[in-house]
Amino acid sequence: MVQMLHYHSWNADGITKEKITKMMHHWKDSDLIFIQETKLPAKDERMIADFLKQQYGYDSIFHPSIQWKSDPSKWGYGVCVFYKHVRVQLRMLRSSNPNLPLDPERLMMVKVNCDLLDKEILFFNIYFPAQNTSRISRSAEQQKWLTTINVLCRQHADEHCIWLGDFNMQKLKPGKQADIRSKLFGQLQKIIKKHGFRNVADKLWQPNVFTRHAPHDSNKVNHITSTLDYVITSKSIQELNQTCVPLYDMDLSLSDHINIKCSNKIATLLDFSMPFLKRVVLSPPTIVRKDFVELKCNRCGYKPTAGKAAQGNLRKHDAKCTGPKETVCPDCNIEYGNPGNLARHIQMGLCAASAYETICSDCGMDFNSFHNLKIHRGMKTCCKDRNPVPVCLKCNKNYGNMGALATHKKYGC
């Protein structure tokens, strides 16, 4: 049994033996490891459980992932806990309210018995629904989950209780406009404050802390984007000494979320309880990107302009792409990058190597390009309606325009 409880929270974006092996040096002293987004088919859960027990001595409890309807080969969601040195019991979540979501692939409740406190600690491992603009019902789903959190916090406010996981919401940053994530964060804060709970991250972390990173259009760095993962404790847990630190030295290629290391122990004169702790200052590192993938159409080589809409533009292009398109002028052999530029080059008659007509057959003037000749012929004052060909009848020389011919005649042929 333990006098100090060590636990971790991590959105794994899919659990594998390789990921567990790479993460285990962060978890080696941990009593509890809470994972979100296991994305495991049911047949693989036993394999992972046996691997954990045989290699590292951890027992495990899984709440199953769900199979995608659009692609049966893929699985989503799923939460689990790995544990040793403590006794863990799975608690089933039930409600008589049919509108109260308690989906096991998103929420797990376990009772942990250890020597740290006089009674068990309830842990809620949650994967809150992320914002998905393609789903009209997502906003209503998020509000129902906030109701679930409210109900469970009210029911367990007087117990030793810890919420942790991926909440998919973040505090509004200074100078920024409110969005769906910041609005959800404000609603969550009101709920937990009403029942005496406290967001440990909001208490202990400076604003420069991040728990989630994401790719950027640049191929140089991964820009830090958001804080989405939190630890929330009941009033009795706040009387303990608390640590809660994101580990930036982990292999960030394993997931776009940062592993968070936490611990609790009895507060002393040297190890203060949470209300008296100072905020932790952590400087986000510059993350060099080694896995930059250039957006490009595999059929015709089209590359969308870099920006937030790049992926969307590529998807639109893929929907109507018919294959490779000619981009090299057959006359001058110059590469024009895309079919549009080549078409413009040909239509305007700018190719020096092609035999485009550039001389007006009516007035004999050379307009240097077929495009300029078309404009000349389209004008209402075109020379074909009013002027003869500017050719001297004596020397049979074409002077290009009637003004030049008049000058020639004036000074003698």
Describe this structure in words.
This protein is of the alpha+beta class and 413 residues long. It folds into four domains: 5-288, Endonuclease/exonuclease/phosphatase (Deoxyribonuclease I, Chain A); 296-324, no CATH class; 327-354; 357-410, no CATH class. The chain is 25% helix and 19% strand. It has helices spanning 17-27, 42-56, 138-155, 180-194, 200-204, 310-320, 339-347, 370-378, 402-410, and strands at residues 5-11, 32-36, 59-63, 66-67, 75-76, 79-83, 87-91, 107-113, 121-127, 160-166, 198-199, 212-213, 221-222, 224-226, 229-233, 241-246, 260-265, 287-288. Strands 3-6-2-1-17-16 form a six-stranded mixed sheet. The chain has a six-stranded mixed sheet with strand order 7-8-9-10-15-11. Helix 1 (17-27) links the parallel strand 1 (5-11) and strand 2. The radius of gyration is 35 Å and the shape is elongated. It starts with a strand and ends with a helix. Residues 9-257 form the Endonuclease/exonuclease/phosphatase domain. InterPro entries: Endo/exonu/phosph_ase_sf, Endo/exonuclease/phosphatase, Znf_C2H2_type.
Report mean pLDDT, rounded to a whole number.
84
Which geometry do the CA atoms define?
elongated
Number of domains: 4
CATH homologous superfamily placement of the largest domain: Endonuclease/exonuclease/phosphatase
Distance between the termini: 118 Å
- Topology-level CATH name of the largest domain: Deoxyribonuclease I, Chain A
Please outline the major beta sheet: 6 strands, mixed
SSE pattern: EHEHEEEEEEEHEHEHEEEEEEEHHHH
Task: List segments where confidence is low: pLDDT < 50 over at least 5 consecutive residues.
Answer: none
By DSSP (H or I, 4+ residues per run), the number of helices equals 9
Structural class estimated from helices and strands? alpha+beta
Strand arrangement in the largest pleated sheet: 3-6-2-1-17-16
Roughly what fraction of the amino acids lie in strands?
15-25%
Q: Care to count the β-strands? A: 18
Radius of gyration: 35 Å
- CATH level-two architecture of the largest domain: 4-Layer Sandwich
Protein name: Zinc finger and BTB domain-containing protein 49
GO molecular function, one term: catalytic activity
Domain C2H2-type: 328-348
Domain Endonuclease/exonuclease/phosphatase: 9-257
